[in-house]
Amino acid sequence: MRISVVTESFLPQVNGVSNSVRHVVEVLTRGGHQVQVIAPGPGPLEHHGVPVVRVRSVALPGYTTFPIGLPDRALEREMARFAPDVVHLASPIALGKVGQRAARRLGVPQVAVYQTDVVGFSKQYPFHADVPLSRWIGKIHRRAHRNLVPSAASAAQLADLGVSDVHRWGRGVRLDLFDPSRRDEALHAEWAPHGEALVGYVGRLAHEKQVHRLAELADVPGSRLVVVGDGPARPELERLLPGAVFTGMLGGTDLARAFATLDVFCHTGEAETFCQTVQEAQASGVAVVAPGVGGPVDLVEHGVSGMLHEPTRPASFRAHVAALVADPACRQQIAAAGRARVAGRTWDAVVGELVEHYDAVALRPAERVA
């Protein structure tokens, strides 16, 4: 099958959309499919032998390293030249809308993957864009031939926007990379020289992730906070958390080692459609505390494979983290259950599900000619 992937973000950017697309492209290629990636630039022009078409872009205010794709004739020209059976719209907002318009003109069906709750994120900022954003996103997804969502919460969000033909499609996790065996006791001793339990956040340091809530954990008895990642909120966090360890951006085995060396993983954001870092923490054998809203609700069985705090109760987040810090046996039990939950959720298995969705809507060569 021939698939054009139009994505709002791709390498060298590191985020949930970029990482998901990268894994999908790699698995599709190994499976013998022909893939084309269309992404905002600048960046590499190929990935694992797959051509990457770079289109015009502009930097997002406040995120100078995050380009937003602009209308570009190169997109439709290169898509037509590639002649895809299906177009995959990865978290369509700006470039995704352009890609959808091109696909419609070419008569190619689209599978739209809803991955980013931009409406929820926008509510963390003072520019009140939630209503027009909702209308824009609803319009894109109503025009797609099939919509994929990662969680029950995101399915409900699209349903509220009048979107039909919605199917659940989650994310894979690299079980070969994220594994309890990556735990590094020497690193643990370096980060916690007095034997504290390590409580860690991993992800983009941005206000829409509500990372300021990490301040609630700054003085949990018997713990030390570790912050893995980078972003525009980092300077503010460093002022709020002078006793925390800030590692900056990590990747590959360094990231896996950091995950596995934690004792408790915590997530702060309430607008996550999935929350991939929860899966990576579970695969790493680390007890998880996450918000009881959005994507984490599908990933964590409260009290069994993690803890879900109540965002509307300010003391709930800290209380769950403090309870796990104080109870190593409970941490181990929850970590083991979390690890069992993600067993089998490899990217190969998940992309296999994705191909079934492609098959359901794809145009075969004879149909294209007709």
Automatic annotation (TrEMBL):
Matching entries from SUPFAM superfamilies are given as: UDP-Glycosyltransferase/glycogen phosphorylase (SSF53756)
Q: Name one GO molecular function term.
A: hexosyltransferase activity
> Which keywords appear in this protein's UniProt record, sorted alphabetically?
Glycosyltransferase, Transferase
Q: List, for all copies, the residue spans of the domain called Glycosyl transferase family.
A: 192-340
Query: Do you know which InterPro entries this protein is assigned to?
Result: Glyco_trans_1, Glyco_trans_4-like_N, Glycosyltransferase_grp1
User: Which segments constitute the Glycosyltransferase subfamily 4-like N-terminal domain?
Assistant: 14-176
Return the PANTHER family for the record. Answer: SULFOQUINOVOSYL TRANSFERASE SQD2
Know the name of this protein?
Answer: GDP-mannose-dependent alpha-mannosyltransferase
State the taxonomy lineage.
Bacteria, Bacillati, Actinomycetota, Actinomycetes, Propionibacteriales
